[in-house]
Design goal:
Chain B: This is Octaheme c-type cytochrome, tetrathionate reductase family. The complex is a heterodimer of chains A (238) and B (584). Chain A has one domain. In chain A, 64% of the residues lie in helices and 5% in strands. Chain A has ten helices and two strands. Chain A has a two-stranded antiparallel sheet. The two termini of chain A are 36 Å apart. Among the domains of chain B are: 74-276, no CATH class; 360-527, no CATH class; 551-584. The longest helix of chain B is centred in the last third of the chain and has 27 residues, at 550-576. Chain B has helices at 3-6, 10-25, 28-42, 88-98, 102-106, 110-113, 142-145, 171-174, 207-212, 219-226, 264-267, 299-307, 318-321, 331-337, 345-349, 476-479, 482-492, 550-576; strands spanning 116-117, 124-125, 195-197, 200-202, 360-365, 379-381, 387-390, 394-399, 405-409, 413-415, 428-429, 431-433, 443-457, 462-463, 501-511. The termini of chain B are far apart. Chain B contains 18 helices and 15 strands. Chain B is globular and about 115 Å long. Classes of the chains: A mainly alpha (238), B alpha+beta (584).
């Protein structure tokens, strides 16, 4: 097991340089758009899961036709949000946070399995250039590039089957589309449960939730970072 | 006349008031005309608004047919129709003196020939030969059954219908049904002299008045036969009965007497006395595309193309409503339109049949027919006043507001005919429905599934004909003896009968297409998209809400459960070890 602080890379070396002097400050890690994206996506996913599993016949709190309408509308909004966020992520350079990395992934996993029970601190230190730990990056990257597109591509095929199936009586392919959509749905549900639980593993139960609402989070900064933020982005630091 | 008021039809209430006032004030002449109307009212029938005995006859009161109401001729003014006709054929002769091609046209139709060749199956079908789940067969029972032939005097099914042009019955389709009626046992003729029937003396119709009342066929005309098939009102079809003479919107949005008031021919719209829409070749998935592959954008274009011979005449919903009938500007409409490739319009829009207060027969068990009490035939009525047993016919069940039976249907039916071998250990399908989920030609259709127990030849495993009607010593309804009636019928048509009579369960399928309910009453999504819903028996298609992928659902729910369990265990461990604090 390697110590994460000795890992190579710009973030790690920067942390090493500033080890002598660490500033604990509140920094705005999540921009307004990011928070809007997160919470609107959260609501939409809940609506989609609720209505989707109603259509599937798992739950029955609302009528079938309402569920279908809800699901269709929410799906379009989410796809639009997804596309716009993809655009936003690339134009603002935020995509860097999501690139998965193996470095430190194992340590983070072991922390959640073992270290946490021993009261050990989190092995990963957030930095301005990398605000997600490797496990987060891995999970979010998978959701955004695999499960999400699987769901909405199969969902669009599901929704518009009349356009491609026509009058052919092509019901087998339709079944396959439903199958893929359902696999995606189960994966998404599993992710959401895990995600919501992980949110409670911060310094306090609501630490992460609060951060995603206010945008601000306690960070360990170097002197250079503090100086830079105070001079150029005073809104981002308290 | 007074019973118009009870129907709540305002123009007639006014007309009635006017009439009453006029009568009270006026002279002997108007009293005379009133007595004429009273005589009709007393006979328990309504005169149609266009009848010549109704002084306020207006073409606008006619039902909406394939042709616009109001023409250029008033038949009551034709001298040739003012004669004292002695018989139906005499009337027809007068009709043909102007309508020179009418008889020839009629004599080329299914209404006349009762015979049609099914090109797909090669079977010869039609009333002349098929066996149905009701009275069974026409042959050997002619004068009773051919009372619904569109002609006069077809007395032997072994022969084609009479070829004489004057044998065509114009009046049954075109005259006011209050003024003209075929008599039940006269092989298509009306009465020509007073005749006792069911303990009363029935008067013959005034053929001159009937002839002067002619117009485009009204629902009452078509209904005079099609409502009463199988031996009574509503018995056979389930979606055709006398309640459609004056239906409200809830019963049928198209025929709604206070609304569109469409006649049968508004949809069954053809030319040359040929009407599309026969059960013998149904359009299960009607096209809106011409023979050249052109999409017809509107009902008017389709109508023109059909008249021009560019596409087959059609009596389908799509003819007017297109294949994407729901509002495409909202998501629900788009979603509903997505159903039209697999679900017939009628499946959702005729939620139940026999909704007009007239019950339809759902079960007919012939095997119990022939029982007598004190040597006499008897009848048992059920709590709704329908016969549940008759010595002549056996046991019955009737039902109202019946939910249809659903099946894939490509429009083809394969009939069990006299020469076909049956498997008596199974329910025999009188007209087995063709179609499947995958042929691209089928849709899910609603049917009345008639259940019967019918006579068959136990040795040959074939259905048999039965001689039921006649004042002879073999007819079942006169002699109550199966051992005479079946052999008599088989001998009549020259078929072998082993002498071993059995009874076999049969199903007969009647496509449901009339009694289209208002859209608010259409079948709800959840009535099909649910387990144990209306379409539970439909296979070959994935239906959201009804179906799942067993193993995937199992894995999915297990994954859900295990994830939840995982986080709960993790949370528990965190609570247990919450006080441990080690320095990193």
């Amino acid at each position: 097991m390697t110590d994460i602080s000795s890992a190579s890379g710009p973030a790690a070396s920067k942390a090493k340089e500033a080890k002598s002097k660490v500033f604990h400050r509140k920094v705005k890690n999540y921009s307004r758009y990011e928070r809007f994206w997160h919470w609107s996506q959260a609501i939409l996913i809940f609506v989609l899961a609720f209505s989707g599993f109603t259509v599937h016949g798992t739950i029955r709190f609302i009528p079938f036709h309402s569920a279908v309408m809800m699901h269709d509308i929410a799906a379009f909004v989410l796809i639009f949000l997804w596309l716009f966020t993809a655009f936003w992520t690339f134009t603002t350079g935020q995509w860097r946070h999501f690139v998965p990395t193996n470095a430190g992934l194992w340590e983070v996993i072991m922390h959640y399995l073992v270290g946490m029970m021993r009261g050990q601190p989190h092995p990963y230190k957030r930095t301005l250039s990398r605000k997600q730990n490797p496990l987060q990056s891995f999970a979010y990257f998978s959701i955004m590039t695999l499960v999400g597109p699987l769901l909405w591509l199969s969902g669009l095929a599901y929704m518009f089957y009349s356009f491609w199936a026509g009058n052919s009586g092509n019901h087998e392919i339709f079944s396959l589309v439903v199958l893929l959509h359902l696999i995606g749905a189960f994966l998404m549900v599993a992710f959401v449960i895990g995600h919501i639980y992980m949110v409670t593993t911060g310094k306090t139960l609501i630490h992460y939730t609060k951060a995603m609402i206010t945008g601000f989070e306690d960070m360990e900064l170097t002197e250079a970072e503090v100086t830079y933020l105070e001079a150029h982005e005073p809104d981002r630091i308290k | 006349m007074a019973n118009f008021a009870s129907k709540g039809r305002r123009p007639h209430i006014k007309a009635l008031r006017g009439l009453v006032m006029a009568v009270s004030a006026l002279s002997f002449v108007s009293l005379l005309s009133l007595s004429n109307i009273e005589a009709l009212a007393a006979s328990g029938q309504e005169t149609l608004p266009h009848s010549p005995v109704n002084a306020d006859a207006k073409a606008s009161a006619l039902q909406l047919s394939g042709k616009p109401a109001g023409g250029t001729a008033d038949h009551s003014k034709f001298e040739i129709l003012q004669q004292d006709f002695k018989s139906g054929p005499e009337v027809t002769k007068a009709c043909l003196s102007c309508h020179t091609e009418a008889a020839d046209q009629v004599q080329h139709t299914l209404h006349w020939k009762w015979e049609t060749k099914n090109e797909a199956t090669g079977q010869t079908l039609g009333k002349r030969t098929v066996i149905n789940s009701f009275c069974g067969n026409v042959a050997s029972n002619e004068p009773r059954c051919t009372s619904c032939h569109a002609g006069y005097g077809w007395e032997d099914m072994r022969q084609p219908p009479p070829s004489d042009p004057e044998a065509v019955d114009c009046l049954v389709c075109h005259a006011d049904t209050a003024l003209y009626k075929k008599f039940p046992t006269k092989a298509g003729h009306p009465l020509y002299e007073p005749t006792p029937w069911n303990g009363k003396i029935v008067q013959p119709p005034n053929l001159s008045m009937a002839a002067q009342s002619v117009t485009n066929p009204q629902r009452e005309n078509c209904g005079s036969c099609h409502y009463y098939g199988g031996g009574g009102d509503g018995v056979k079809h389930g979606d055709l009965d006398s309640s459609l003479n004056h239906p409200d919107a809830a019963l049928d949005v198209h025929m709604n007497a206070d609304g569109l008031n469409m006649a049968c021919t508004a949809c069954h719209s053809g030319s040359g006395h040929q009407w599309p829409g026969s059960r013998y070749s149904t359009e299960a998935k009607p096209t809106t595309i011409t023979n050249d592959g052109e999409e017809t954008k509107t009902a008017k274009i389709r109508s023109l193309d059909q008249h021009a011979g560019l596409m087959e005449p059609s009596a389908s919903c799509e003819s007017c409503h297109s294949a994407r009938p729901h509002d495409g500007n909202d998501i629900m409409g788009i979603k509903l339109n997505d159903h039209t490739d697999t679900v017939a319009c009628q499946t959702c829009h005729v939620p139940e049949f026999a909704r007009g207060g007239v019950a339809t027969k759902t079960l007919w068990d012939w095997s119990t027919a022939g029982k007598l009490k004190d040597g006499k035939p008897y009848k048992v009525m059920d709590e709704h006043g329908h016969p549940s047993y008759m010595s002549e016919k056996g046991d019955f069940e009737y039902a109202e507001n019946v939910q249809p039976f659903y099946s894939w249907f490509n429009g083809e039916t394969t009939w069990t005919l006299l020469d076909d071998t049956i498997d008596p250990t199974k329910v025999v399908e009188i007209n087995a429905l063709g179609g499947s989920a995958t042929d691209g030609k089928s849709r899910i259709w609603p049917f009345k599934r008639m259940h019967s127990r019918q006579p068959y030849d136990k040795a040959n495993n074939q259905l048999v004909y039965n001689h039921v009607f006649g004042k002879d010593d073999t007819a079942l309804w006169t002699n109550f003896d199966w051992d005479k009636s079946v052999p008599a019928a088989m001998e009549f048509i020259g078929k072998d009968f082993s002498g071993e009579l059995g009874f076999v369960d049969t199903y007969m399928y009647w496509p449901i297409t009339h009694m289209v309910a208002p859209k608010e009453q259409a079948v709800r999504c959840t009535e099909c998209h649910a387990k144990e819903g209306r379409l539970d028996g439909i296979t070959g298609i994935y239906m959201p809400g009804r179906d799942n992928f067993k193993w995937l659902d199992w894995i999915g729910y297990a994954a859900f459960g295990l994830t939840l369990l995982g986080v709960l265990i993790h949370a528990l461990l965190r609570i247990i070890f919450r006080n441990r604090k080690t320095q990193a």
